[in-house]
Amino acid sequence: MELPTATAVVIAVISLLLNIAAVLISRSQVAVARSQTEVQRQIHRDSSQPYIWADIRLNPDDGATLDWVVGNSGPTVATDVTFRIDPPFGDIHPLTSAALERMAKGMASLPPGRTNWWSLGATYDLVKSTGPQPRTITIDATGPFGPLPTLEYVIDMTDFREVNVRPDGSLHLLAKAVDRRPSVKDVAALTGALQRLAEQRAEDSSTDE
Questions:
Q1: What total number of domains does the chain contain?
Q2: Which residues pair with 107 in a beta bridge?
């Protein structure tokens, strides 16, 4: 093979390799762009999904009873919302028992920002045992992009044992106390509410300083 011919072949091979490399790089860039687009799309979906939750909380008014609380902290409406509790609560308020049965079958919708409360009963009745009392909460719902992943977690009722009972001072309680002719019990409740409000004001003032 003559030298010019060999040189031409080498140049042709190098050109072919460069073209192949350019095609591979182009395909890689397209794949990266598609991946970034999918990530952005997923971020948008996640940020637009409802966030449904359920909790057991101390009642803020008396500090001695427990409430069943559900809410939607996301930005969109959730539909076909179900809450299941295993094992179910025993002897609780009948209205709450009916509400829990309805929630297990499914709620039509739960708008964003909504929080609903139901009374379960006295803490000492619900947390009698000293051993573990786990209850598994399972939540299913549908968002604007389809069914949400099933959310499942455990709440142990014994976590409420030895909790400091400290009801919040409330102007609502004061209004209730003076809304009718006060009895000795009402006066005591009013005095206690005023004292708690004064303590909270003092704590807030010391914190600000």
A1: 3
A2: 81
Distance (Å, rounded) from C-alpha 148 to C-alpha 81? 10
Q: Are 123 and 160 in contact (CB under 8 A)?
A: yes
CB-neighbour burial class of residue 155 (10 A; exposed 0-12, middle 13-18, buried 19+): middle
Strand (E) or helix (H) holding 77: none
Check: pTM over 0.85? Answer yes or no.
no
State whether 37 and 57 are in the same domain.
no
Domain of 79, CATH number, reads 2.60.40
Residue by residue, DSSP assigns 132-178 as: --EEEEEEEEEETTEEPPPEEEEEEGGGGTT----PPP-HHHHHHHH
Q: Are residues 91 and 117 in the same domain?
A: yes
- Residue 7 within any structural domain of the chain: yes
Amino acid, res. 37: T
Tell me the per-residue pLDDT of 112-161, one tens digit each, with 9 for 90 and over.
999 999 999 888 888 877 788 899 999 999 999 999 999 999 999 988 88
What is the SS3 assignment for 110?
A: strand
Cα dihedral 31→36→42→44 (10° resolution): -140
Same domain, yes or no: 119 and 28 = no
Q: Does 56 lie in the same domain as 40? A: no
Contact between 106 and 80 (Cβ < 8 Å): yes
